[in-house]
């Protein structure tokens, strides 16, 4: 199976397809549709991920050019009271919208997407990566721990939100994990 990973472009058809996939995955995983306070970035992919220089959004496509996975990275832009003064948009990147279609899970695609955004974070001089996930997502916390993240706060709220981070300052990342033929800086081909 050939999987391509590339940077999302400001292309209306591509953006619409990404939005459809994201909302479909959110419905499957969380059981709800569009919620403005949670999903403004999906409605405004260009504003949140494509236009800002230190942000990016990657898509993985199969051999039929169908989008099968996504991951977004942007400068930290939340105002959680728990993290006041801990993170900043200058030093912290944050991961958003890592989803992999069920048919393609357990093939290493999520790990590859993470390694790509980790590399992007290093190249853009971030010191750490923040994310939040949910205990209701099977395997999510274990996956992020495997990627080197530590739990900073387990909220035990109704969404079962867990906040995590990973220091990347001065870390030598093994980019052989991005062990594919690299076509250019923004496009990767994975042979699975």
Overview of the structural elements:
The protein has 192 residues and is an alpha+beta fold. It has five helices and nine strands. It has a nine-stranded mixed sheet with strand order 6-7-5-4-3-2-1-9-8, with helices on both faces. Mean pLDDT is 86; it is low at 175-185.
The biggest beta sheet reads: 9 strands, mixed
- Gyration radius (Cα, Å) is 16 Å
Spans with pLDDT under 50 lasting ≥5 residues? 175-185
Beta-strand fraction estimate: 25-35%
Shape: globular
Distance between the termini: 5 Å
The number of strands is 9
**Quick check: average pLDDT?**
86
Strand order of the largest sheet: 6-7-5-4-3-2-1-9-8
Helix content: 25-40%
User: Helical stretch count?
Assistant: 5
Order of helices and strands: EHHHEEEHEHEEEE
Structural class: alpha+beta
Jot down its keywords.
192 residues; alpha+beta; nine-stranded mixed sheet; 5 helices; 30% strand
Describe the secondary structure blueprint for this structure.
Elements: E1 2-7, H1 12-30, H2 36-43, H3 45-50, E2 56-61, E3 67-75, E4 92-100, H4 109-123, E5 128-134, H5 140-146, E6 150-154, E7 161-167, E8 181-184, E9 187-191
Quick recap of the structure?
With about 190 residues, the protein is α+β, with helices and mostly antiparallel strands. It has helices at about 10-30, 35-45, 45-50, 110-125, 140-145; strands at about 1-5, 55-60, 65-75, 90-100, 130-135, 150-155, 160-165, 180-185, 185-190.
């Amino acid at each position: 199976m050939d999987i391509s990973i590339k940077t999302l472009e400001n292309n209306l058809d591509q953006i619409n397809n990404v939005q459809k996939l994201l909302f479909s995955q959110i419905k499957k995983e969380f059981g709800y549709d569009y919620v403005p306070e949670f999903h403004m970035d999906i409605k405004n992919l260009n504003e949140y991920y494509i236009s800002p220089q230190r942000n990016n959004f990657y898509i993985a496509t199969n051999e039929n050019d169908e989008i099968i996975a996504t991951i977004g990275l942007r400068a930290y832009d939340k105002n959680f009271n728990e993290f006041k003064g801990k993170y900043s948009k200058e030093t912290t990147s944050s991961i958003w919208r890592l989803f992999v279609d069920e048919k393609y899970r357990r093939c290493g695609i999520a790990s590859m997407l993470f390694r790509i955004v980790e590399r992007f974070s290093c190249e853009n001089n971030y010191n750490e990566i923040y994310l939040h996930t949910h205990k209701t997502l099977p395997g999510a916390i274990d996956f992020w721990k495997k990627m080197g993240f530590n739990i900073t706060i387990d909220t035990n709220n109704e969404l079962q939100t867990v906040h995590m981070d990973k220091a990347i300052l001065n870390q030598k990342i093994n980019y052989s994990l991005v062990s594919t033929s690299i076509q250019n800086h923004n496009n990767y081909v994975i042979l699975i």
